[in-house]
């Protein structure tokens, strides 16, 4: 399913944005002229409990040890490109929207994003992104929140 369809079906207002191709969340922040603190970067991990979409600010790094503690999973690793292609078949690799339920995944969100009014993230393409209210994002993603990122 395409992100815009998912947002429309769930009655979430969003601002679509088009830009030149970007391949990192920090580059997305620059292209959209926004702070990396409010750009939501997805990182999918896999462990004994399955796949989880971790969401953190573009300006941060994932604390895999902490994610393992939160999920109570000692065998955590980053998902492979092949696994991501299977999980998110309608998305360009590396441009997945950070909404786990769209892909049948649970979502774990860094608590620092909860302070933002809006979130910006890629819309399944390296040339498209969206801006949504953070509270609408949380309603859709139903994330577990914890301190899972560091700078």
Structural summary, described in words:
- With 151 residues, the protein is α+β, with helices and mostly antiparallel strands.
- It has one domain (3-150): YbaK protein, CATH 3.90.960.10.
- It is built from five helices and ten strands, in the order αβαβββαβαβββαββ.
- The protein has helices at 3-9, 25-31, 64-71, 81-87, 134-141, and strands at 15-18, 40-47, 50-57, 61-62, 77-78, 106-110, 118-125, 128-133, 144-146, 149-150.
- The protein has a five-stranded mixed β-sheet with strand order 5-2-3-6-9, covered by helices on one side.
- A hairpin with a 2-residue loop joins β2 (40-47) and β3.
What layout of secondary structure does this protein have?
Elements: H1 3-9, E1 15-18, H2 25-31, E2 40-47, E3 50-57, E4 61-62, H3 64-71, E5 77-78, H4 81-87, E6 106-110, E7 118-125, E8 128-133, H5 134-141, E9 144-146, E10 149-150
Parallel strand pairs: 3-6, 6-9
Antiparallel strand pairs: 1-8, 2-3, 2-5, 4-10, 7-8
Give the terminus-to-terminus CA distance.
32 Å
Task: Write down the overall geometry.
Answer: globular
Largest sheet: 5 strands, mixed
Order of secondary-structure elements: HEHEEEHEHEEEHEE
CATH architecture: Alpha-Beta Complex
- The total count of strands amounts to 10
pLDDT averaged residue by residue: 95
Strand order of the largest sheet: 5-2-3-6-9
Fill in the CATH topology. YbaK protein
Quaternary structure of the protein: single chain
Structural class per helix/strand content?
alpha+beta
Assign the CATH class: Alpha Beta
pLDDT below 50 for ≥5 consecutive residues: which ranges? none
> What is the CATH superfamily?
YbaK/aminoacyl-tRNA synthetase-associated domain
Helix content: 10-25%
């Amino acid at each position: 399913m395409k992100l815009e369809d998912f947002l429309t079906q769930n009655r979430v207002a969003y601002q679509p944005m088009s830009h030149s191709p970007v391949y990192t969340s920090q580059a997305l922040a620059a292209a959209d002229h926004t702070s990396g603190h409010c750009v939501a970067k997805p990182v999918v991990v896999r462990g004994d409990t399955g796949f989880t979409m971790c969401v953190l600010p573009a300006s941060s790094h994932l604390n895999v040890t902490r994610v393992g503690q939160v999920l109570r999973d000692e065998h955590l690793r980053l998902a492979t490109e092949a696994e991501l292609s299977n999980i998110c078949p309608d998305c360009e690799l590396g441009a997945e929207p950070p909404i786990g339920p769209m892909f049948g995944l649970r979502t774990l969100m860094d608590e620092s994003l909860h302070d933002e009014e809006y979130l910006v993230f890629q819309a399944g393409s390296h040339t498209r992104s969206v801006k949504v209210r953070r509270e609408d994002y949380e309603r859709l993603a139903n994330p577990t929140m914890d301190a899972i990122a560091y700078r």
